[in-house]
Design goal:
With about 100 residues, this protein is an all-alpha fold. It is built from three helices and no strands.
Length: about 100
């Protein structure tokens, strides 16, 4: 059984990795597709970890990368931005913020 400190540490690590990948996507990279894929994987892991660490939410609306569309939804940037918005939205709701 992992302690809450270990869980929070993993949440912070994933958050930092997500921020790092977002910053790298602002640059013109030849391996952009791999970075996008890794970012989406990390966002998924982040949401899973948050839902297990903080299972109770006060809002009946659940945010997910698939349920939110902002701006042009046909571009890869929109999918990543939407997933990032979903993660930050569920994080705020889960922590009472």
């Amino acid at each position: 059984m992992t302690s809450i400190d270990d869980t929070l540490s993993e949440i912070r690590w994933l958050r930092n990795e997500i921020w790092r990948h977002r910053r790298s996507l602002k640059k013109d990279l030849p391996e952009r597709k791999a970075v996008e894929k890794r970012l989406l994987e990390q966002l998924s892991a982040f949401e899973r970890l948050l839902s297990t660490a903080f299972p109770l939410t006060l809002s009946p609306k659940v945010y997910s990368a698939k349920s939110i569309t902002i701006g042009r939804s046909d571009s890869p940037e929109a999918r990543i931005e939407n997933a990032a918005m979903a993660s930050s939205g569920s994080f705020g709701k889960s922590t009472g913020g």
